[in-house]
Write a structure and sequence with these properties.
single chain; alpha+beta; Nuclear Transport Factor 2, Chain: A; 7-stranded mixed beta sheet
């Protein structure tokens, strides 16, 4: 059996990290840490502003999204349709909070995985019911030729 030449980084995110602190001081090479952190920041900004075009640009061409209680969504078109529908549902809501806390970010060659929690708070613009979401998230990232990273697989489930 041939040995793999892929090197793994045992670096993990600092528990409780949020936003741009999500993967600092974790032993990842600085360039990789900065590139993954940039992906996180773009993702958070795009979700907060409902920027579907930006969200799709953050995905690999073969991205698969596994939303709770749904069939897998494969590729940009299916994911874009899902996001359009979701943001239409949220049209009357203002994003008050949306952030992630990663318990682990690990790089293995040109792939990385991360898991943690996501929290969203959305206020109804016309005094309706507010929405509070807490989820566990798991994502696989893939490095790109320019050194940036994109999401290749995304899954989550709601938690109380």
């Amino acid at each position: 059996m041939e040995k793999s030449s892929v090197k793994a980084s045992n670096a993990v995110a600092t528990p409780g990290g949020q936003g741009n602190d999500s993967i600092k001081n974790n032993g990842l090479p600085k360039k990789i840490s900065a590139a993954i952190d940039k992906l996180h920041q773009l993702d958070l900004k795009a979700m907060k502003t409902h920027d579907i075009d930006m969200l799709v640009r953050l995905l690999t061409d073969d991205c698969i999204m596994l939303p709770p209680a749904m069939e897998p969504l494969c590729g940009h078109e299916a994911i874009r349709d899902y996001l359009n529908d979701k943001f239409m549902e949220w049209e009357n809501y203002e994003v008050a909070q949306y952030d992630h806390q990663f318990e682990e970010v690990k790089v293995i060659g040109e792939l990385a995985y991360e898991w943690g929690t996501s929290r969203g708070v959305y206020y109804m613009k016309n005094n309706g019911p507010d929405i509070f979401e807490n989820s566990r998230i798991f994502r696989i990232l893939r490095s790109q030729p320019d050194g940036s990273w994109k999401f290749a697989r995304i899954m989550w489930h709601d938690v109380p």
